[in-house]
Known about the structure:
heterodimer; A: alpha/beta; 11 strands; 19% strand; B: alpha+beta; seven-stranded mixed sheet; two-stranded antiparallel sheet; 9 strands; 37% helix
Amino acid sequence: MIQKGYKLDFSKQTFGVILYGAPGIGKTTLAMSDGNMGADTLLIDLEHGVGRTNPIHRMNANVLSARNYEEVLADLETDVAKAAKTIVIDTAGSLVDYLKDWAFRTKPDAKTKTGAWNAMRGFGHVKTEIESFVNKIKTVMNKNVIFIFHCDEKTENDGSTKQRLRCEGSFKNIVWTGIDFGAYIQMLGNKRWACFSPEDEFFAKGCHGIHGHVEIPDLSSGVPNDFMAKLFDTARKNMIQENAAVADQMENYRKVIEGVKDMLEGVTDQDSANACMKAIADMPHALTSKKECGMMLNQKCVSLGLKYEKATASYVPAGDQK
Amino acid sequence: MKLKITKTLIESWAYTFDCMEEYADEAMADFLATLKREPHEPSEAMIAGTNFENLCYRIASGENVVETVLLDSVNPVTGEVNESRKFPDNYDGAKKIANIITGGQIQVPVSCDLTVAGQGFWIYGICDVVKAGVIYDVKFRTTSLGSSDVYGKYLHCSQHPLYLQALPEARRFDYLVSDGRDLYVESYDRNLIEPAEVHIRNFWAWLHTKPELLEIYKEKWVVE
């Protein structure tokens, strides 16, 4: 099915999220905050850490425990997994460890001649598999996916310290590309905050109107654990508004670019080049179309031996420039 | 009097603060060479970066960069000569970037005037790619993306503020970082960044603490 951009339905949009922070800050509880005591969530508990969460917040949670990666894959095929709206990977660093074990056992070239871990080949398999795994959850199963990471404080070249994801291999970098939100969870005063905008001390990612510091409610007073559910709802609403605002611009942009491509077919000499330049200037431009069309015309003119002359604001034969 | 300012100049200055201590002298020498606009030979890393960028552009333009090599063997079933496909170095990463930038315009010059602290500046830069309201910058790393933390690397980079200032119709700036295999994208929204003015103001204020360098800047970067 092909739809116009302005007709797209974001009411069931799913999201990718990174949550990271110090041990005990409440990352797992936050990841399960679906407003339904965990019933809409499948927690892939690779560190057996769910026991450290408050029982009331995981009353209905579906917890996947596995001894190896193959068991994780098998459990993803169950009806419980298929029914979940959100899949939480706790932690993503441990998933990489599981995949290292899997690659070591099942991929002959993940071992050196002496039988040790071949990091270069082995991490190649880990990376390929983890991308496939995440793609399955996000795209094929159409779930929200939340990656929980531990973090380490690391000293940078300039002496400053930064909070970094605890994870081996390239996944710690490439995971950011496919996610919508990345929050560093921290205590400021006596309150917990999810920080969605990058700062000197940590990296973060926000979009669809979610950025800056967002306070995480104190759950001790019986407040429902629904932070992520509300966050997703807000993001969906913002997406719908953003789409309405941008759709017209995108449509105008597309029309202008296509129109100029057609016009350039008729540019064959100095006169037609200058006529085209004037026509481009008069078009109802959107986004960066004016700049891009100018570049397209310029390339065409160069191929015809013409050059833009600033003094006369027109294209002239390259040799005749003043 | 208007002064030209580029991300190369600001970044070479910023690196004198960000680099490891043992490279401090080298960083300062590089900055001075940039300030004096001395010509320099491109480093190996710069050449590798340019080659990678060009590969991305070639793939994006639809050029077939994969070479088909006829082998000396014959398929026993079909009787056809066996073929092998030879991919250029760093093809996987370049293909991922090409998928994003296809249809965009490459090497787009942008510029604008900006007054900071009473001084007129002329911001100038060349965007690697401009497409549908987004500026893309291709970055190549000679070391694997798995070897270090890259995310957040561009938070304080002056490139996205300067370029977004110079191309006001663009709403976002994306760094496309690849090691030739994988791709990492770091996006900056126009509404959520430090303005270009902050970077220029800091640089300008620092130059005022080094009168001899300020004079060099005024002499070498003046714009008619």
